[in-house]
Every structure is written in C-alpha cells, then in structure tokens.
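Project standup — Tuesday

K.O.: blocked on the structure for the chain from last sprint. Re-posting the sequence here as requested.
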Amino acid sequence: MRAEAQAHIDQIRSALDLLRRFLDWDRALKRLDELNAKVEDPSLWDNPKGAQEVMRERRRLEQAIGATRAIEQDLQDTVELIEMAESEGDDSLVDDGVRALAALADKAETDKVAALLAGEADANNTYVEINAGAGGTESQDWAEMLQRMYARWAERRGMKVELVDHHSGEQAGIKSATLLLKGENAYGYAKTESGVHRLVRISPYDSSARRHTSFASVWVYPEIDDDIDIEVEEKDLKIDTYRSSGAGGQHVNTTDSAVRITHVPTGIIVACQNQRSQHKNRAEAMKMLKARLYEAELQRREAEASAQHAAKTDIGWGHQIRSYVLQPYQLVKDLRTGVTSTSPSDVLDGDLDRFMAAALSQRVTGEEVVVEDVD
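H.V.: unblocked you, prediction finished:
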C-alpha cells in the first residue's frame, strides 16, 4: 500500500474511531431502536412538543449512524480496489483509488464535525463578544480585526451577522463589540473560540516600526429561545443607560437609549445599543444576559463532566488559546490542539474551520496536547 494511501486510511479510521466513541456506538444503536418504536406509536403526537424532540433526536442519530456506516463501507470497498489494482500492476487504477481515499478522508472529517455538534445548544444562533486587552490603540485595533474575522467566517457559512453592541477605540479599532451570528449550528462551531487571542506584528502605529504583542478576548454564548426558562430577579440587576456611539451622520443617537445590564451575583455585564429605543435595547440586553447565564450553566455541566474548569481568564500573556504572528514570519498556531496555518491573511479572513474542528474533537477525546507558543 502506498504511503499516501495509508495516510488517508489512517485519517479516515481515526475519524471513525472518534465518531464511534462520541456516539457510544452500541448505546446509540439501542437508543435508535427505542426512538423508532416511539415514532410508530400513534399516541406520540398527543404531545406535539415531545414528539418534535423525539423526531429531532432520531434524525440526528440516523444521520450520524448512517454517515459512519457509509464511510466504513466506502473505505472497505476502496481499500479492496487498491489492493486488487496493485496485485494486477494497474497504476492508473491505484491512482484513482488514492484520489477516492483523499475525497473520503475529507468527507469523514466533515461528517465527524457535523456529528460532534450534538450539544444542548449547538444548533442555536450565537453571540460573539470581543474585548480589547491592555495596550490602548494596538489592542483595540486587534479587537476590530477579530470582529471582522468572525463576521467573515459567518458570512462564508451563509449566516446573517448583526452588530448588537459596539464601543469604538479612542484613535482606532474597538474597545468592545458583540456580534449576533444567525445560522445553523452557529454556537456549536463558534463555542470553541472562547478565550484570549494574541497578535504579534510590526505596529502600524509605531513610528519606529517595532514589533508589538497585543491581546483581545473572545467570549461565545448561545442565543436562547423562549422554551428555556432562565430566572433573573430584578434585585440582582444594575441597569445603566448611556448615549449610543456610532459611525456618525444618521446613525448618531442623541438620546440615552443604549443599555448596560450588570448581573451582580455573577458579575456578568451585557450591553446593547443597536436599537433606537431604550425599551428595545433593554429587552435585547436582557435576552443576552439570560443567554450568558445559560452558557455559564452549560460550562458548569461540561466542567463537571470532564473534571476540568473552563473559566474566563485575564486578557494577557499565558492565557492565550491562539497566537497570530504577522512579522517577522507568517504563522497562526492554536495552543490547545497544535493546529497551524502559514497563511494568517486567510485565517483573519474567516478561514477558521480547521481550528474549530480540531477543538471540537479534543472536547470528545479529552486529549491534552503540549504545544509551545510562538515567539
């Protein structure tokens, strides 16, 4: 077997092993039988909401199990084809088989990621909150670059992007911004981006053209629907109003319509200024607060399940999840998974899927990767 073909086979088998492990294969097959029996029961639709949940779970399991079986069969057929072609000395047919394995490896990775998006809120829209770290204009410019990166990633996936909150920097960039990304599995994909992001570059704001390191934090939490009941007591809230900041012209709001809500027990702060009335901004901010509280509960459950604590950290050195180096060389390196890219321009233009897929897989395997940061 050619080395190239064997590499593809190993990649496919690794994806299949992860899928089976994630699904808990024998348990998933048994659960699918149970769901099929429920669907055949005429009384199921006496409770429409419960019936829809059953249908959603069955559809997810059918797709994941079906995709896994299809890949296994395609792998077996292609390996047999290559072995037969090699025994007959048919190099052309071997080449066809290797190309088929490469395509199957790509499909296995895609199906693997799709199957991993089975969390409680993975299918939901998501908020992406970006905050500049210490460092003034440098960090604020970096925060704006991240804002554009996530907007471009969402647009590539056909998602709708809304700017919910925005605070401009003094000279350039942003102090903070919150995006709402609307699309299928938006939270499931983006949730692995929470953390501190580090940029190394020759500063465009330094007349001496020195190299600077900047930090910004990203916090991702799902939009929640009305079916999820989150209790928030008025006595726990500190509500401030202020004047919206914008691009100028017709966008300037001369009234104190922007709203900032602080949840005192947890210290969570949310803000909204994209609506023209204070009432609408308050309603949107409350929705964001409930989403943050819900996300905190999801994090707590995940931490208990994995015996790890995924807490928000300081925006500075030693806490970064990914480094982006623009000078003196070009490299983006994820410090959790070891995934790298030698094209930071593509990454900053929204090419994030490989980083997200690796981080999702790591959540299933729990495998710790020792990765040294870049200078």
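K.O.: great, moving the ticket to review. DSSP finds nine helices and eleven strands in the chain. Residues 132 and 143 are 5 Å apart (CA to CA).
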